[in-house]
Amino acid sequence: MRVLTLVGDTWHPPAVVSDGLKGLGDRGFRFDFCDTVGSETPGLLADYAAAILAKANHRSARDASPWLTAAGAEAVAAWVRDGGGLLVLHSGLVAYDDCPALTALVGGRFARHPEPCPVTVRPAAGRGLAADLAPFTTVDEHYFVALDDDYADVFLYSESRHGTQPAGWCGMRDAGRVCAVTPGHFAGVWRQRAYRAIVRQSLDWVAARAAAR
Fold first, then answer.
1. What pLDDT score was predicted for residue 126?
2. Overall average pLDDT of the 52-78 stretch
3. Among 19, 150, 163, 173, which residue's CB has the most CB atoms within a 10 Å radius?
4. Three-class DSSP category at 92
5. Is 171 exposed, middle or buried (0-12, 13-18, 19+ CB in 10 A)?
């Protein structure tokens, strides 16, 4: 399955995610990486059954102007509800406040983070996507989020000296699926076997219904 993969903003170099995803091993996915995007990008989704959003609302790592418009966000939401699978990683939760259709689709958005610090990520016992996942501790940006979806299935939590936050949640969106995972700022996070397992399992889940289309 080809996966449209949007990476790179002024705070997050594309290579962290692109190298990290390549390290997942063969899962039957081919990642089509885009590190410079614009208002035409939502139209590309028609050629894909699954996508990864791993960039803030910046056109590229060199251009912080927004790439996604409110109308574009409506198109993304329609694609998911029609059966697409969307995985949102870390910075994909950032700076989309002017795109309410996307934030409603994802069910949560970035609020703030303290300085990088040791963060422990723990699976939530008894949640479907948490099965076989292991806790781990790493230095990361500890994302604090506004989780607006009362029906979100929270399967991960993150803990630091600053508190505890939802770190992974998922939900059905009509015929499609959305999953969000907040850790992942540094390459060192991606080198954690337990983190790679989270990404693999989340991608498998969002793509499962898309594969049956």
1. 86
2. 98
3. 173
4. helix
5. middle
What confidence score (pLDDT) does residue 24 get?
Answer: 83
Would you call 36 helix, strand, or coil by DSSP? coil
Q: What per-residue confidence (pLDDT) applies to 213?
A: 56
Give 105-129 pLDDT, tens digit per residue.
999 999 999 999 999 999 998 888 9
Q: Are 72 and 164 in contact (CB under 8 A)?
A: no
- Strands annotated E in the chain: 2-7, 30-34, 50-54, 85-89, 108-112, 117-123, 136-140, 144-147, 153-160, 163-173, 176-181
Is residue 136 within 8 A of residue 192, CB to CB? The reply is yes
Q: Is the dihedral of CA 13, 15, 16, 17 positive or negative?
A: positive
From CA 48, how far away is CA 191, in angstroms rounded? Answer: 28
- CA nearest neighbour of 143 among 102, 177, 193, 92: 92
- Per-residue tokens: 8: 């790179």
Q: How far is CA 138 from CA 5, 53, 124, 145, in A?
A: 25, 22, 18, 19
Tally of residues, the chain: 213
Beta bridge partners of 146: 109
Q: Judging by DSSP bridges, how do beta strands 163-173 and 153-160 pair with one another? A: antiparallel
